[in-house]
Amino acid sequence: MTGPVVGEDGLARCPWAAGPGEMRDYHDHEWGRPIVGDAAWFERLSLEAFQSGLSWATILRKRPAFRAAFDAFDPERVAGYDETDVVRLMGDAGIVRNRAKVLAAITNARALVALREAQGADSLERLVREHAPPVAPAPHDTEQQQTTSPESVALSKALKKRGFTFVGPTTMFALMEATGVFDPHLVGCHRRG
């Protein structure tokens, strides 16, 4: 078990962000902060699905290529993708070339467009935020950190019911952490609170 780690700059951080670089920048400036807009939510949902089974550092390094390949994660544009686009994406060495995950991104764009048509703008954000835990976790070390919760299980079911795929409870827990649905930082991390 590991608690917050103090970096060379004197700041305590979650252990995965202890050293300088891309992961630290992500930790300090993005992880656990709210996002706004359907494209931002669709991007995070998609990238969390692509990350499944891989390291977040890999996805973060490839994020600019993902953004270019998926039209800046514009849900309407991605919802209109066809087999030609799937072939294009599968040939793009800059992204994770996993056919099931590529198809999931397209399916999820279509599900998001349908959700928005039925419930209005920002409906994905509202749905995710409705599943926020009543009491945010407050882990002191990595041993106490969760990877799922009753809320992430319920969110997974709610999204699947609406046609989304690759939205399992662990992926949804990571999405809620990343988007600031609750504060994911360890107690003692300078970003906590």
From TrEMBL:
Q: Which Pfam families match?
A: Adenine_glyco (PF03352)
Instruction: Provide the GO biological process annotations.
Output: base-excision repair
What is a single molecular function from GO for this protein? Answer: DNA-3-methyladenine glycosylase activity
Q: Does the keyword Zinc apply?
A: yes
| Database matches in InterPro entries | Adenine_glyco (IPR005019), DNA-3mA_glycosylase (IPR052891), DNA_glycosylase (IPR011257)
| Annotated segments matching region Disordered | 134-153
Main EC class of this protein?
Answer: hydrolase
Q: Which Gene3D superfamilies match?
A: Hypothetical protein, domain 2 (1.10.340.30)
Binding-site positions, Zn(2+): 14, 27, 185, 189
Keywords per UniProt: Glycosidase, Hydrolase, Metal-binding, Zinc
Under Enzyme Commission nomenclature, its number is 3.2.2.20
Q: Does the keyword Hydrolase apply?
A: yes
Q: What is this protein called?
A: DNA-3-methyladenine glycosylase I
Q: Which organism is it from?
A: Nocardioides marinus
